[in-house]
From TrEMBL, chain A:
It comes from Paenibacillus paeoniae. GO terms for biological process: transmembrane transport. Its main location: membrane. This is Carbohydrate ABC transporter permease. CDD domains: TM_PBP2 (cd06261). The lineage of its organism: Bacteria, Bacillati, Bacillota, Bacilli, Bacillales. It comes from the Bacteria.
UniProtKB/TrEMBL annotation, chain B:
This is Sugar ABC transporter permease. Residues 76-292 form the ABC transmembrane type-1 domain. It comes from the Bacteria. Pfam families: BPD_transp_1 (PF00528). It comes from Paenibacillus paeoniae. It is a multi-pass membrane protein. InterPro entries: MetI-like, MetI-like_sf, UgpAE/MalFG_permease.
Length: 294, 305
C-alpha cells in the first residue's frame, strides 16, 4: 500500500528499453551458449550441421577426443604455465620498478620518468621487435611469452598511484625499526596493495591466457605452442592435430570435426567462464583506475 | 631536495632503491628503445644473417617501393575503410548503450546487464572468431536467419566473398566490445551530480531533453578524448580479429596495413621494406593524433594536450 505512491507509470519507453537490454544480454551470451551446446553434439549429428538452441542429443565423445589429444593437452599445460609465470613476473617486476620510481628522493627520478614516458608514446613495431627477439635468442623460446610482457607503463602508473594512498607513517615506522627499502616494500607496501595487485594480476592473466598472436609469430616447436595458438590453427586454418586425425579415422568420413572444434573452444574458455563471475568487478575497477589516470 | 648536491656517494647510499629501478630502465632500453632505433633498417638493405651495421644504406628506396606498390595502397584503403565504418557507425554505439542502461531503474537488473555485457571482451579472438566463421559459413546461423526472414533465397558464403569482410569486422567488433567500451561512459555518467537532473525535471525537461542537455553535455570531455584516440588509431586495425577472419579468398578486402606489414615482413621476409612502411605509418599516426586533438580543441574545447 505504501509503495503505491512511489510507483511510477511504466511507459512505452521502459518496456522498449528493458527489451533492448534483454536483447543485449542475449546477443552477448548466445555465442558462448552456441559453443556449449554444439560441443555436445554427437558425431552423427555434427555432419548435419549445428544446433541453434538446445542440444538434440548429448555426448561426451568430442570432449574425450580433446582430452586424449596430447597436442591440445600440452597446449593447455603450456598456456597454464605461461599464465602463472607470466603473471607473477609481470606483477613482481612492475610493482618493484614502480615502488623505486615512486620515491621522490630517488636520484635521477626525472630522467627515469622521462625514459618511461617515451616508451608509451613511441614504439618500434612488429618488424624491429621480431628482429630483436631473434637476436636475443627468444625466437622459438618459451621465455618470449614472459620477458617481453614483464612490464607496461600503464600498470606501473597504476601501481604508483596506489602506493601514494598508503600512509607514509606506515613506511616511516618500519624504517625506524631498521627495515631496508626491500623490507619496507615486501613487508609493508605490497601486503597493503592487495587490491591493485589482484586487478593487475587478473588483467595480465587474461592477456596471457587469451593471446594467440605471440605464439603464431615466435613459436615453431610443437611442444611449446600455447593452446590459443593451436586453436587458431584449428579454427582458421582447419588444421587437425594428430589425435583428431585418429578420431577422424575412427569415426570414418562422418567426422565429428565441428563438435571437436567446439569442445576445444569450450576447454580453452572454461577457466575464463568459471572465474568470470568472481573476478569481473576487479577487472572493472582496473579500468576505472586507468580511466582516471588517462 | 638534495638532488643537486647528490653525487656518486649518495647514489650508492640508496643502492637498494636504484637496484629496483635500474632493471626496469634496462628492460625499457632493450625492449622499447632498441626496436625504435632499429626502425633505421627501413633505410637500409637489412639482412637478418648479418650484423646490424654491415647492411648498406639505401636511402628512401624502400619508401619509393611501397609508394608505388598497388597492394600497399589497397591495404591503406582497407584500413581506412574498416576504421571509418568502426568510427562513424561503431563509435556512438557504446555511448548509446551507456545512456540506455542509465535509464534502467532497477539497480539489480542494471548491474546484471552490465556484468553480462562485458563477458565477450574476455573471450579470446580465437574462440570468438571461430564462432563467427561458423555462423557465416554454409548452414550457419546467419544464413539460416537471413533465409528465414526472406532477405536471401540461397546460402551465401559470407566469409569467402570479399565484399562482406569490412562489415563482418564491424559487426563482430560491436558484438564483442560494446559492453566493455561502455564502462568508461557508464562511470562518467555515474559521476554526474543528481541535482542537475532534479533541477531539469522541475523546469519541465523531458527524458530526451535531460539526456541531451545534461548527460551528453557532462560526458562530453570523455567522448572527446576517446574520439581523439580513435581517430589517431585509424591507421591501426584490430590485428587479432583480422588475422583470424581473413582467408585467401577475402584477402583483397581484408589485408589491412598491419596485415600488409606482417605479410611483407614476416611471411615474405622483406624486413627493410616493411620497416619502411612501419616508419611512415608512425609518422602519419602521430600527425593524425595532433590533428584530431587540434580539431577537438577548436570544436568542443576538449582535448588531450
Amino acid at each position: 500500500m505504501l509503495r503505491r505512491g512511489r510507483f511510477r507509470r511504466i511507459g512505452l519507453f521502459e518496456v522498449c528499453n528493458t527489451l533492448l537490454m534483454l536483447a543485449v544480454c542475449f546477443l552477448t551470451l548466445y555465442p558462448m551458449w552456441f559453443v556449449f551446446i554444439n560441443s555436445f553434439n554427437p558425431a552423427e549429428k555434427a555432419i548435419l550441421g549445428t544446433v541453434n538452441w538446445f542440444p538434440e542429443s548429448f555426448s561426451w565423445a568430442s570432449y574425450s577426443v580433446v582430452f586424449q589429444d596430447k597436442g591440445l593437452m600440452n597446449g593447455f599445460y603450456i598456456t597454464t604455465l605461461r599464465t602463472l609465470i607470466g603473471t607473477t613476473a609481470h606483477v613482481l617486476f612492475t610493482a618493484i620498478v614502480a615502488y623505486g620510481i615512486s620515491k621522490t628522493n630517488l636520484i635521477g627520478r626525472k630522467l627515469y620518468l622521462k625514459i618511461a614516458l617515451i616508451t608509451m608514446l613511441f614504439s618500434g613495431g612488429l618488424i624491429p621487435s621480431f628482429i630483436l627477439m631473434t637476436k636475443l635468442g627468444l625466437y622459438d623460446n618459451f621465455l618470449v611469452f614472459i620477458i617481453p610482457a614483464m612490464y607496461t607503463f600503464f600498470n606501473m602508473v597504476i601501481f604508483m598511484s596506489f602506493y601514494r594512498t598508503i600512509p607514509d607513517s606506515l613506511e616511516e615506522s618500519a624504517k625506524v625499526d631498521g627495515a631496508s627499502d626491500y623490507g619496507v616494500l615486501f613487508r609493508i607496501v605490497l601486503p597493503n596493495s592487495m587490491a591493485v595487485i589482484a586487478t593487475i594480476s587478473l588483467f595480465s592473466a587474461v592477456y596471457h591466457w587469451n593471446d594467440y598472436y605471440q605464439g603464431v609469430i615466435y613459436i615453431r616447436s610443437q611442444d611449446i605452442i600455447p593452446l590459443q595458438t593451436m586453436l587458431f590453427k584449428i579454427v582458421a586454418e582447419n588444421s587437425m592435430t594428430f589425435m583428431q586425425q585418429q578420431a577422424m579415422a575412427q569415426f570414418g568420413a562422418r567426422l565429428p570435426g565441428n563438435s571437436i572444434k567446439f569442445a576445444s573452444m569450450m576447454v580453452a574458455t572454461l577457466p575464463i567462464l568459471l572465474f568470470y563471475p568472481f573476478i569481473q568487478r576487479y577487472l572493472v575497477k582496473g579500468v576505472m583506475i586507468g580511466a582516471i589516470k588517462g | 631536495m638534495f638532488q643537486h648536491r647528490a653525487g656518486l656517494k649518495s647514489f650508492f647510499r640508496q643502492w637498494q632503491l636504484q637496484s629496483m629501478v635500474i632493471p626496469g630502465i634496462i628492460w625499457m632500453i632493450i625492449f622499447c628503445y632498441i626496436p625504435m632505433l632499429w626502425l633505421i633498417i627501413g633505410f637500409m638493405d637489412f639482412s637478418i644473417a648479418k650484423p646490424m651495421l654491415q647492411s648498406p644504406f639505401v636511402g628512401l628506396k624502400h619508401f619509393q617501393d611501397f609508394a608505388s606498390d598497388e597492394r600497399f595502397w589497397r591495404s591503406i584503403r582497407n584500413t581506412l575503410g574498416m576504421s571509418t565504418i568502426k568510427l562513424v557507425l561503431g563509435f556512438p554505439i557504446p555511448i548509446f548503450f551507456a545512456l540506455m542502461l542509465n535509464e534502467i531503474r532497477s539497480i539489480r537488473f542494471k548491474r546484471t546487464v552490465q556484468t553480462i555485457s562485458y563477458l565477450p571482451h574476455f573471450i579470446a579472438w580465437t574462440i570468438f572468431g571461430g564462432i563467427m566463421l561458423n555462423w557465416l559459413g554454409e548452414g550457419g546461423v546467419i544464413n539460416q536467419l537471413m533465409m528465414a526472414v526472406g532477405f536471401q533465397d540461397r546460402e551465401i558464403l559470407f566469409n569467402s566473398d570479399p565484399k562482406y569482410f569490412w562489415w563482418i569486422t564491424y559487426f563482430s567488433d560491436i558484438l564483442k566490445e560494446t559492453g566493455w567500451s561502455a564502462i568508461i561512459y557508464i562511470a562518467a555518467i555515474a559521476g554526474i551530480d543528481p541535482a542537475l537532473y532534479e533541477a531539469a525535471e522541475l523546469d519541465g525537461a523531458n527524458r530526451w531533453q535531460r539526456m541531451w542537455h545534461i548527460t551528453i553535455q557532462c560526458i562530453r570531455p570523455t567522448i572527446a578524448i576517446l574520439f581523439i584516440l580513435a581517430v589517431a588509431g585509424m591507421l591501426g586495425s584490430n590485428f587479432e580479429q583480422i588475422f583470424i577472419l581473413k582467408n585467401n579468398m577475402n584477402m583483397r578486402m581484408a589485408e589491412s596495413l598491419d596485415l600488409y606489414i606482417y605479410n611483407m615482413g614476416l611471411v615474405s621476409g622483406r624486413y627493410s621494406f616493411s620497416t619502411a612502411v612501419l616508419f611512415a605509418r608512425s609518422i602519419v599516426a602521430l600527425g593524425l593524433l595532433f590533428l584530431a586533438n587540434y580539431a577537438s580543441k577548436k570544436l568542443t574545447g576538449d582535448s588531450i594536450f
